[in-house]
């Protein structure tokens, strides 16, 4: 008679758990004395949070114990299906059945996402954004396996994103879900999960709050700031370069002076297509930006976007501005303070920025007008 294997939960098999270090809860399938298979549950606990096969002293003990029970039942169900086919449940037959249900990735959802992502032919900038989303998901430790793909966990991930960085605006949060959803849909299409958790969770698109560009005084403060730290100095120089060219981080990151620049009537211009949209832009390299290029022998230093924005926040605190310096703020500053503030026609601004339509450029004009209106109100109260 064909027998079912023993399926049980084991904790800290590698003996790493302590009061300050977590150990992993795994599901162990014992086929015989010499054959057994262990699969991660995605649950990590401290040494005092496991007792007699149960999660204890944890804020979500009931939920985690239910998850462990469901995993055990799931693997027992796979074993029963093998017996129903008239086969013996061995390491090989169980692994094959598990692969058919979960794909070649076992239960690891994030590895599945990377596999799918590599075959989608994404542009370099989009690829970076998707990888950042997956690594952020990994960091949250909320969704690791296919069994973690529930609407409740998607809500928890959304809440974690908000709590981890309160400055994230709704459109940024929406983009995390937008990038994640195609991989969830792929898992549904392949039959790995039955239903998308997004069927019960709707991420609102939201609207970006108007960005505050640096004014002339703040821009001068950044330019003249004395910095001894090399990382801060490089970040500041890249920021100034973008403030006087309008390049987004993705365009700056691939900028090549020898290939992307033309000279017309003694002036240098960047003549290229934007990484994000593929729209052509044509923008002058103004003197402050040219000075940066000369400083680095026409080869800009490379900094990851996360490190770049982190360093810019430090620079913002050094010049004592309440504005949140970022790679986006440099672009806004170029459009408003540098161009529109010096009466460059909006049609020319649109071309320099590489906007797909002039309506996008008009948003910058509105930001500038609102600033002028505030100054007018202030003057009216004084005069």
Question: Characteristics of this structure?
Answer:
single chain; 383 residues; mainly alpha; DNA polymerase, domain 1; hpI Integrase, Chain A; 3 domains; three-stranded antiparallel sheet
Overview of the molecule:
The structure is a single chain. By secondary structure, this protein is mainly alpha-helical. It folds into 3 domains: 6-103, no CATH class; 109-199, DNA polymerase, domain 1; 216-382, Orthogonal Bundle (hpI Integrase, Chain A). 52% of the residues lie in helices and 11% in strands. It has 15 helices and 8 strands. It has helices at residues 61-84, 91-102, 109-118, 124-140, 151-164, 170-189, 216-224, 230-243, 249-253, 257-260, 287-295, 305-318, 327-339, 346-353, 358-382; strands at 6-11, 23-30, 36-45, 50-51, 54-55, 261-264, 267-273, 280-284. The strands form 3 sheets. The protein has a 3-stranded antiparallel β-sheet with strand order 1-2-3, covered by helices on one side. It has a 3-stranded antiparallel β-sheet with strand order 6-7-8. A hairpin with a 5-residue loop joins strand 2 and strand 3 (36-45). Helix 3 (109-118) packs antiparallel against helix 4 (124-140), helix 8 packs across helix 12 (305-318) and helix 14 (346-353) crosses helix 15 (358-382). The longest helix has 25 residues, at 358-382. The chain is elongated and about 90 Å long. The model has no long low-confidence stretch (mean pLDDT 87).
């Amino acid at each position: 008679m064909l027998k079912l294997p023993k399926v049980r939960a084991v904790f800290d098999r590698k003996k790493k758990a302590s009061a300050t270090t977590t150990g992993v809860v795994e599901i162990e399938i014992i086929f015989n004395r010499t054959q057994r298979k262990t699969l991660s549950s995605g649950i990590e606990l401290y040494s005092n949070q496991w007792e007699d096969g149960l999660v204890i002293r944890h804020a979500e003990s009931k939920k985690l114990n239910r998850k462990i029970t469901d995993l055990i039942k799931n693997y027992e169900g796979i074993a029963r299906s093998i017996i129903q086919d008239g086969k013996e449940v061995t390491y090989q037959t169980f692994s094959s059945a598990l692969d058919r249900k979960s794909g070649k990735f076992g239960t690891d959802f994030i590895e599945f996402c990377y596999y799918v992502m590599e075959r989608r032919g994404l542009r370099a900038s989009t690829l970076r954004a998707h990888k950042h989303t997956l690594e952020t998901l990994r960091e949250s430790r909320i969704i690791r396996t296919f069994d973690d793909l529930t609407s409740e966990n998607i809500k928890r991930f959304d809440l974690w994103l908000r709590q981890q960085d309160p400055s994230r605006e709704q459109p940024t949060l929406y983009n995390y879900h937008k990038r994640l959803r195609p991989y969830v849909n792929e898992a549904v299409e392949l039959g790995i999960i039955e239903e998308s958790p997004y069927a019960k969770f709707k991420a609102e698109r939201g609207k970006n709050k108007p960005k505050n560009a640096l004014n002339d005084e703040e821009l001068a403060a950044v330019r003249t700031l004395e910095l001894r730290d090399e990382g801060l100095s490089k970040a500041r120089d890249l920021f100034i370069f973008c403030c006087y060219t309008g390049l987004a981080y993705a365009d700056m990151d691939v900028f090549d002076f020898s290939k992307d620049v033309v000279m017309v009537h003694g002036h240098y211009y960047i003549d290229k297509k934007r990484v994000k949209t593929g729209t052509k832009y044509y923008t002058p390299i103004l003197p402050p930006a040219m000075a940066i290029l000369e400083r680095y022998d026409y080869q800009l230093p490379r900094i990851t976007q996360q490190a770049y924005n982190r360093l810019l926040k430090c620079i913002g605190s050094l010049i004592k501005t309440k504005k949140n310096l970022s790679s986006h703020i440099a672009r806004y500053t170029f459009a408003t303070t540098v161009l529109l503030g010096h009466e460059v026609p909006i049609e020319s601004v649109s071309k320099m920025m590489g906007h797909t339509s002039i309506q996008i450029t008009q948003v910058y004009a509105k930001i500038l007008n609102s600033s002028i209106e505030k100054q007018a109100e202030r003057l009216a109260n004084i005069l």
